[in-house]
Design brief:
The protein is of the alpha/beta class. It folds into 2 domains: 281 residues, LigB-like (Protocatechuate 4,5-dioxygenase, Chain B, 3-Layer(aba) Sandwich); 262 residues, 4-Layer Sandwich (Purple Acid Phosphatase, chain A, domain 2). Helices cover 31% and strands 24% of the residues. Strand 19 and strand 20 form a beta hairpin.
Length: 562
């Protein structure tokens, strides 16, 4: 008998008798899963029961395969529990390096403490037709990459067949592309693609933070090609599984990843070493334009919005009580999950409005400006913009005092302020007063940010660019790279009045930049004006995940043009 058969026989002989008794076919019993720490699994499932079942449609889920993060695994499955699937494709790293081909699968069912997890024989037979790519590998039964999650699969989706696929560490991007093509005939509109992935081994805290942040930035940019370049095991235990997940989600569901939780795992706190475990979900695109409340125990959420101005035509609109209430309700409905909001406050807030300020002088009254800022949970505003001196330096200083006196941090050009889970620096590259109008941020100011030694993560809110542009110009690109070198992790742009529908991961994920959020509450009639809000989830170990959420033009909404 070959060695692999001896090991399989040993595993079956030593399996719990109760498990084998559940086999439906005595000649082909389900594989017993590896020791899955049943107390940890059951305890984590019980602890997740208090969470509400999400009504969000999910096409993909990524959870750890380390039962040290059992509660996080259970929380991930709880998010998906409200869905019904025809099959679950499981992508997992092959830890044992026993496969001879790039990929492997198993056609027989698995036994778990919750019952037998049946496989989809037809789909597996289809995948095995590509014998240069895929093999059937019995020893995968002992791999924790699948063993850790099978009890959860069986508990939360007891009647859903699985298609297990192990991705070898020796496989290449070419192999992953072939797998994605083969799965085109397997994945349906009702398939859940389940990926099990652990972060790299423990590293010193700052190094672990930097590694995880680069990984999160690649996910946020939905850049599958960058994910394929992640080095195993330094970044993740399976860049292949991550790549295939993202490829399938983009093609079949148009769904980018959303990291809902990331927690630190500290196997040796005395040595100050850390690694992390995280949950990714792939929600349906029909919930776009909404920011839902996150799990407050897993992340602290801040939102960033673009140009905001409460004078001129906006002041007129807000003077109509019905219109004002309708707009406020719509904004708050879409920003339900934004308990902390940061905006670019364009112009100068004054106690008393001038009689004829001029169309390009952005003055706004204290009332209702402060009322709106408080109603929308604004905790800080950037006052670094080209209209900051429209009313003179004295009125600008008075605005800062009024904002600070009302409990809202006013962040001036060059200021670095502590907002709890992150530090914020505000900068403007444009100024209406003096010359030149643009290119105002100097190399010395960038160097000063680096020398400040701000505790990471450091976020920059930058006023730059050209109105209504659709791509960043060379000046913005150069400034973003300079800010990244100065230690800025997240760069957020304002001024163009047009929201760019994407953001970029710089230098392999070292920093992320959203070049323009467009308008938030700003009185422009131009139909090119658009809006987005950046949702940022800050995790306890000092990392974050960003999501760009397209919003309607709220001014157009108020005047009945959207």
């Amino acid at each position: 008998m070959p060695p692999s058969r001896w090991l399989l026989a040993f595993l079956l002989f030593t399996a719990p008798l109760g498990g084998l008794a559940r086999a439906e076919q005595p000649s082909e019993p389900p594989y017993p899963t590896p020791a899955a720490q049943p107390d940890a699994v059951r305890g984590s499932i019980e602890s997740a029961q208090h969470l509400p079942i999400s009504q969000r449609k999910l096409s993909g889920l990524t959870v750890p395969n380390d039962l040290a993060a059992a509660e996080l695994i259970a929380r991930g499955f709880r998010i998906a529990e409200g869905n019904r699937y025809d099959k679950i494709v499981i992508l997992f790293p092959e830890h044992m390096s026993t496969t001879e081909r790039p990929l492997a699968t198993i056609s027989r069912s698995f036994d778990t403490e919750f019952g037998s997890a049946a496989t989809n024989a037809a789909d597996i037979a289809r995948l095995l037709q590509d014998r240069h790519l895929m093999q059937e590998q019995e020893l995968l039964v002992t791999d924790r990459g699948i063993g850790a999650v099978l009890p959860y699969v069986r508990h939360f989706f007891p009647d859903t067949p699985i298609v297990p696929i192990a991705v070898s560490v020796a496989s290449t991007q070419g192999d992953w592309d072939l797998l994605a093509a083969d799965l085109d005939g397997v994945v349906t509109a009702k398939t859940l693609i389940l990926q099990t992935t652990d972060m790299a081994p423990s590293l010193p805290l700052r190094e672990a933070q930097a590694r995880e942040q680069a990984f999160l930035n690649v996910l946020a940019a939905a850049d599958a090609t960058a994910a394929a370049r992640l080095i195993e095991p330094r970044a993740t235990d399976s860049s292949g599984a991550q790549y295939v997940q993202m490829r399938l989600q983009a093609k079949h569901f148009r769904s980018p990843p959303l990291v809902t939780a990331s927690i630190p795992l500290e196997p040796d706190p005395a040595a100050a070493l850390m690694t992390s475990a995280m949950v990714q979900i792939y929600p349906a695109t029909d919930d776009a334009g909404m920011i839902d409340p996150p799990d407050a125990s897993a992340a602290e959420t801040y939102c960033f919005a673009g140009d905001s101005f409460f004078g001129r035509n906006m002041q007129k609109v807000l003077s109509y009580r019905g219109t004002s209430e309708r707009m406020c309700q719509e904004v708050r409905r879409r920003l339900t999950g934004c308990t902390h909001l940061v905006v670019n406050l364009e112009g100068v807030m004054v106690e008393k409005m001038p009689s004829s300020p001029g169309i390009m002088t952005l003055a706004m009254p204290k009332v209702p400006t402060l009322d709106w800022l408080h109603a929308l949970n604004v905790v800080a505003v950037s006052v670094a913009n080209n209209h900051r001196n429209d009313m003179g330096k004295a009125d600008f200083a008075g605005m800062v005092d009024m904002l600070e006196g009302s409990g809202i941090k006013a962040v001036r050009h060059g200021d670095i302020v502590d907002l709890g889970p992150f530090r914020l620096v505000a900068l403007t590259d444009l100024d209406n007063i003096g010359t030149p109008f643009g290119n105002r941020i100097t190399e010395e100011e960038l160097n000063a940010i680096g020398r400040a030694g701000a505790e990471p993560p450091l976020v920059a809110f930058v006023h730059w660019g050209v109105e209504f542009q659709t791509v960043p110009d060379q000046r913005q690109i150069a400034l973003a790279e300079g800010l990244a070198r100065a230690g800025v992790s997240l760069i957020i742009g304002a001024h163009p009045h047009r929201a760019l529908p994407h953001f970029a991961a710089l230098n392999g994920g070292r920093a992320t930049v959203a070049y323009s959020l467009g308008n938030f509450l700003f009185d422009q009639f131009d139909r090119r004006a658009s809006s987005a809000v950046l949702e940022v989830r800050f995790f306890p170990q000092g990392t974050f995940f960003v999501r760009l959420v397209q919003m309607p033009n709220f001014f157009h909404f108020a005047i009945g043009r959207s």
